[in-house]
Design goal:
There is one protein chain. This protein has 16 helices and 22 strands. The protein is of the alpha+beta class and 483 residues long. The protein has 4 domains: 151 residues, 2-Layer Sandwich (Methyltransferase, Cobalt-precorrin-4 Transmethylase, Domain 2); 75 residues, no CATH class; 160 residues, Heat Shock Protein 90, CATH 3.30.565.60; 74 residues, Arc Repressor Mutant, subunit A (Orthogonal Bundle). The strands form 6 sheets. The chain has a 6-stranded mixed beta sheet, covered by helices on one side. Strands 1-2-7-6 form a 4-stranded mixed beta sheet. The protein has a 4-stranded antiparallel beta sheet with strand order 5-8-9-10. A hairpin with a 2-residue loop joins strand 3 and strand 4. The longest helix has 17 residues. It is globular, with a radius of gyration of 25 Å.
Amino acid sequence: MEQEKLISIVNDLVKQPNESEWVEFKHNYHSAEEIGERISALSNGACLHNQPFGYLVYGIEDKTHKILGTTFNIKSAKKGKEDIESWLINRLEPKIDFRSYNFEYKEGVNISLVIIPSALNRPVSFFHKSYIRISSYTRNLNEFPEKEAKIWRKEPVKPLEEQLVKQKLTSNEVVSLLNTQTYFELLKLPYPNNQDAVLEKFVSEKFIKKNKDSYDITKLGAILLAKNLDEFEEVGRKAVRVIVYKGKNKIDTIREQIGKRGYAVGFEGLIDWVNGQLPANEEIGRALRSETRMYPEIAIRELVANAIIHQDFSEKGFPMIEIFSDRIEISNPGIPLITPQRFIDEYVSRNERLADVLRRFGICEEKGSGIDKVIFYNEIYQLPAVDFIVSEKRTRITLFSYKDLSKLDKKDKIRACYQHACLRYVSNDIMTNQSLRERFQIEEQNSAIASRIIKDTINEGLIKDDDPTSNSRKYKKYIPFWA
């Protein structure tokens, strides 16, 4: 693998907020046995988290993720008289094709990297024992039978366009189940004169599969264009659910709505219904009228589309929109493939075909241009920073109602400062004290307030000086930590 690609992998890994079940950092080498246990644990962890690979990196401090370099060279290391790579592979079961690399990250800083394929259909063991990482510890997998069972049951995930949800249908049955009209309307195409042309187009989109004398509907076709999701048992459980609560908690439910139509068919109606449940805000910024809705519609639209696109269809659960008196939470099953801190500048989707169709339908933005718009309009509405939370099996994004700066806690201010720096950077601009004051509507004579927020955000390691050699406080500029 090219050195540039290896450096890029390391740069991405150190941006993870913490080590995980599929990523581990080490400063220096301890023992061959430790490597074997880690390979087992990281391969099994990658399987559980739907990651193609696990990573063991030598030369990085585990707590701070500082790239320090290492004296360990896995390519030349020995166990007794045997090459360590050969020694390891002969003691792993099955003998997975892990790859190891030793390279110079920068002058005088060497890295040893092990890229480990995800376990497939069975746990990977070392010396007849299987391992798993729990928090920052490596444990025996048999102590966690539910995780072990999940690995045994897990099969390679087929893309949505290859999964069939109804088979051996006539052409009339396909048209009765899928909303063909909506497809052509969304793409602004004339509706074909005959049914065969409609079905031919759907075959090319992989919404359906043509057999000799019948058709199969794919999961992609059903999830997007179903007239009634309940007609497709498995897909029906992925319908978007909207719940409106009376206050700030889930004690009292006012109303609940469960989507019945495919995502593309029902999207505009869903967004209209959600916006109809939201209060207007009487004071959300000097540039906005009092009758403006509490939250920007474009932000809600993009976040709902993201929840649909980035969900993990192999996990139980469904996209959900929960409306509280002080916030709106939009969540989906599964954990993201990138750290939330990089949502604004990076894009990775586990459902690329689904994303492509929804982009062509005009339901979501082009690759990588969605979250930046969410942050942009959130700032225009003078709302607190968006919060991204990843739990064990769900990803949740929260928009908050308006709060005066004095009522924001330290974490709120730091999050807003970091997002503002990211937004400026991806917009080919750079954050300054002045731009942050404008973000928070801080008067110039109170610039020290903005300076304190910037300092706190630097101390959290989220932003840095664009030019550390500059001594000018007035003209200092700041960029995200990853820039």
